[in-house]
Design brief:
Layout lengths: L4 H26 L7 E11 L2 H7 L4 E13 L2 E11 L7 E5 L6 E5 L1 E17 L5 E17 L8 E3 L5 E13 L2 E10 L7 E9 L1
Antiparallel strand pairs: 1-2, 1-11, 2-3, 3-6, 4-5, 6-7, 7-8, 7-9, 9-10, 10-11
Length: 208
């Protein structure tokens, strides 16, 4: 029995719809996930003090950050926690006579700055662009700082605590996902306490 024009059109439409759906599934499989379940971050950046405050502490007003963090997602929320070493130049170093416990020889050693931070934050982000590869977002968080002047690897040596206040902060960021498993994020952190760091610019490399 010959098919009617209506039946032929219906079969053709159904076939095209099926092919389109299959194509969309293939593209979806190729596209990176907009919100991964979690990611591990390696971070590096630059941080700074107010110059007058840095002079009062006896340190350079610019330091460098190296650290790591974990990031997770829940619905529209993004949360992260991590830590970093802070490299600061000591402008008020002291010298102390130390003794080598193995050989007994004595020598003069200069102090250096030992500094680190822990942080936790929460916020949100918006994905856009080709396959949602690009994102912009805002985080709010709290950083705990521990800074001291001492002689490295020396027992019973002088140690000077450097009063840097822990601080709440705001952190806008932009990111781009190059593959399903690799993302780069540029962040700007603005600290809120006066007797603390002023800001930081960090580059995050994320393994999803």
């Amino acid at each position: 029995m010959p098919f009617s024009t209506t039946k032929i059109a219906a079969i053709t439409f159904a076939s095209l719809f099926s092919l389109s759906a299959l194509g969309q599934q293939d593209r979806a499989a190729e596209a990176p996930k907009a919100l991964p379940e979690n990611e591990w971050n390696i971070l590096a950046g630059v941080t700074s003090f107010d110059s007058d405050f840095a002079d009062s502490l006896g340190v350079d007003d610019t330091g460098y950050l190296v650290g790591a963090a974990y990031t997770g997602y829940f619905s529209f929320l993004r949360y992260s926690a991590g830590g970093a070493l802070i490299i600061l130049d000591d402008k008020a170093e002291f010298t102390q006579r130390v003794e080598n416990v193995f050989g007994g020889d004595e020598r003069d050693e200069d102090s250096s700055i030992d500094a680190g931070m822990l942080f936790a934050e929460i916020g949100s982000q918006y994905a856009f662009g080709n396959n949602d590869r690009a994102t912009v977002g805002m985080m709010a968080g709290y950083s705990y700082f521990d800074v001291e002047r001492s002689i490295s690897l020396c027992q019973d040596c002088r140690e000077d605590d450097i009063e840097v206040e822990s601080s709440f902060y705001l952190k806008p960021f932009v990111a781009y996902r190059f593959t399903d498993s690799f993302l780069v994020r540029l962040e700007y952190t603005n600290y809120q306490e006066e007797q603390s760091f002023e800001n930081a610019i960090t580059l995050n490399f994320s393994i999803l």
